[in-house]
Design brief:
With 83 residues, this protein is of the alpha/beta class. It has three helices and four strands; from the N terminus they run βαβαβαβ. The two termini are 22 Å apart.
Length: 83
């Protein structure tokens, strides 16, 4: 099994959609959101899917502390998707 990490930075709704699709591989998937998620129907729909699939979603603050947190998540992953 590979540990997969999806980093939602530029297009959060699309990143969440990709993470939901990756759950079909039966590999553990995690999502790291850089900044905040927009309050849109597309994001709400994908968050609901991720909650149902029990995919951990963590918010990473922008700045030095957030970069360190994100670096740790990247090092722990076998594959990283930045969207």
């Amino acid at each position: 099994m590979r540990n997969l990490l999806v980093v939602a930075k530029h297009n959060q709704a699309e990143a969440l959609r990709v993470a939901a699709g990756l759950t079909l591989l039966s590999d553990p998937v995690r999502v790291a959101v850089v900044g905040t998620l927009p309050d849109t129907p597309a994001v709400a729909e994908q968050r609901e899917l991720l909650e149902f699939a029990e995919v951990p979603l963590e918010v990473v603050a922008e700045g030095e502390a957030g970069r360190r947190q994100l670096a740790g998540a990247v090092l722990a992953a076998d594959a990283v998707y930045v969207i």
